[in-house]
Amino acid sequence: MQTCLHCGKDFSPPAPVCPHCQKSLVPNYPSMGSKVFMVIWIFFVALVVVLLISMFTR
Ligand SMILES: [Zn+2]
Question: Which residue of 13, 22, 40, 55 sits 20 to 30 Å from the alpha carbon of 5, by its own alpha carbon?
Fold first, then answer.
């Protein structure tokens, strides 16, 4: 069960719209997208750090 952000009632998770207040539950997606962007950014920074370390140890 998942709780609606708008009316606070419970509903079964795979629902794009709340069955009680009919409001969209989509606003969760942008935060997930920024989290994926953050992971890619951290991976890129780690790759640059590894390249710099490999340059200095040679
Ligand atoms: Zn609701």
Answer: 40
Residues with CB under 5 A from ligand 1 (ion): 4, 6-7, 18, 20-21
CA torsion angle for 11, 14, 19, 25 (degrees, to 10)? Answer: 100
The per-residue pLDDT string of the chain (58 residues; one tens digit each, 9 = 90 and over) reads 888 888 988 988 887 888 888 888 776 555 556 788 899 999 999 999 999 999 998 7
Structure tokens at 13: 């998770």
Q: Quick one: which H or E segment has residue 30?
A: helix 29-57
Count of CB atoms situated within 10 Å of the CB of 4: 17
Closest CA to 12 of 26, 2, 20: 2
